[in-house]
Amino acid sequence: MIGRRLILKIGFFVLLVLCWEGIVRLQILPDYLVPGPVQVGHSLWEMLLDGVLWTAVRKSMARMIIGYTVSVVVGILLGILLARSTLAKETLGTLVLSLQSLPSICWLPLALIWVGINEQAVIAVVILGAVFSIAVATESAIRNIPPIYLKVGEVLGARRLIFARDILFFAALPELMSGLKLGWSFAWRSLMAAELIRADAMGLGRLLETGRSFNDVPMMLAAMIMIICVGLFVDSVIFGNLEKRIRRRYGLAR
Q1: 17 domain residue, yes or no
Q2: CA–CA dist 202, 220 (Å, integer)
Q3: What is the pTM of this model?
Q4: Could you report the per-residue pLDDT of 125-147, keeping only the tens digit for each?
């Protein structure tokens, strides 16, 4: 079954590349505007050999790990507060929900003024891009915990810290994983947007902007493919496997 799915996915992408090459050969648009997969592959290979691509991936992932880790810690704590406090839900909850709808790139001008044109500004945008969605997801996951779990914890006299750690967190974990995965995607997009704008921030987003500066469309498409591949790897391989293990452990696997 897994082999059949893999063959289906590979076949789809091979067909997609062939269609792309076919459209380019029709010469509807000049190849310097819409390059073929061979040109893009050549650009990708050159960046791999030069080490530019690996440096960009390493720099972007370093920022991502720092920003996303802070977002997870703050977002989960904020979500627990919103779920357990009616006052916080009616006041702070409205603000969190409003800020979640704000595009993350809107934070960049403020971050540049608040912390300066430096690495911290990019990381701040990553944090602000993900923390509110994680907080909302955490609140929703906790509110959907079966009430019997909470009553058992209260009857056993679990203190606040133990109650939050051993009951709230683990009972909400299966649903919380979806929120953490969504938070990752928000953080990843925020990072790419911040790297695009900040001129001295080497990374995948900056690689895309460098291609635009030199009118190098193959380089831009190669950078976009790498951004997609990294995001897909984290989403499918890391979060996908982690989610399967958690669901299997909780008896939710199908």
Answers
A1: no
A2: 15
A3: 0.84
A4: 999 989 999 999 988 888 887 76
Domain residue limits at 195: 38-249
Number of helices and strands (H, E) in the chain?
13, 0
Confirm whether 22 is domain-assigned.
Answer: no
Give Rg (Cα) of the chain.
22
Distance, in Å, from the CA atom of 205 to the CA atom of 212, rounded to the nearest integer, reads 11
Query: Is 20 among the domain residues?
Result: no
DSSP assigned state of 231: H
C-alpha–C-alpha distance, residues 132 and 152, integer Å: 30
Q: At what angle do helices 37-50 and 2-25 cross, to 10 degrees?
A: 110
Q: Six-digit token pair at 39?
A: 């040109």
The answer to whether residue 176 is domain-embedded is yes
CATH number of the domain to which 187 belongs: 1.10.3720.10
In this structure, what DSSP letter does residue 235 have?
I
Tally of structural domains, the chain? 1
